[in-house]
Every structure is written in C-alpha cells, then in structure tokens.
Known about the structure:
By secondary structure, this protein is mainly α. The protein has 5 helices and 4 strands; from the N terminus they run βαααβββαα. The protein has helices at about 25-30, 35-65, 70-90, 110-140, 140-165; strands at about 5, 95, 100, 100-105. Helix 3 runs antiparallel to helix 4 and helix 4 runs antiparallel to helix 5. The longest helix has 30 residues, at about 110-140.
Amino acid sequence: MWTFTNMYLFDDKNATECGRPVTAEPEHAALGRADTPIVCWWSLLFLVSAGNLVLWAVIVREMHGLADGYVGQQLVLSGIFAAACAFRSILPRVDLERRCLWNSPLSSIFVGRSVATIAELCFAIQCALLISKLSAVTAKASLQVIGWSLVPLIVLVQVFCWYAMPSSA
C-alpha cells in the first residue's frame, strides 16, 4: 500500500530509497497528518495533470481522421509527454535529496529518471518535427539541419542526467 509522505519532514537516519521508511499506516491516516499546504499543492498538480490529459484526449478525438502524418506524430509525442508529466506530478520527488511525496516503488529515482528521459526525448523530437515542417514551408534547408540537431543534443543531455544520478539509484 502506498503511504503519503510529508516531503518536508524526513527522518534521514532510517530513510529508504525515496526518503522515508515504509509504514503500515493506512493511506487515509497518513493524509490526515499531512501538512495542508502540501496536500493543496499536490491536489493542484493532480488536477492540472488530469486536465492536460483530458484536453489531449479531446484534441485527439477531434483530429481523428483529419490528421496527416505530421499531425499524427505530434499527437503521439505530445500524448507521451503529457502522460509522463502527469506521472511525475502525481508522484513528485526530489531525486538528489532522495525525497518523495508518496512512498511507493514508482517513486524510485530510476523510474522517475526513466520517465523524464522519455518525456524530454519526445519533446525534442516534437521540436525537431516542427522546425522541419517550418523548413519545408519556408524552403530553407538550413532550418531542417538545425531542427534535427536538437535530438542528438538532448540525447547527450540525458546521458549527463543519468551520469549525475545518485550511485545507489
């Protein structure tokens, strides 16, 4: 069972991977002792994430059958990005300090970094596709080179992010 963990009150002596020892306390009891500002902040993150996913689904439904290859690629990539952002909003964590809001296996540093990597690569590919489309519209081939050079740069950035992860992640 997942337990709510106050992100600002940790016992670092007995901390687990995501910042807090596992407790057998029921979820509703954990939420009852949580700080109100943290619960409000997390609730807002949850609502915005849900709203983003609903909005994305509405756009996909409206575009069904009308989308060409470019629009279809953008929709798939934006859906992956929105889902990854929602995941990271529902299970927020501070990786380097090894703290999380929900004490869950999904709050591990490895899972969080993996989801972030996928989201950031999808966003870079979206930007490259947009710049490539702009290149085709304006007939400037140099834009296409610039656009697609973003993707290897983001891959390099991700390698550095993974390298900088704590060693016991």
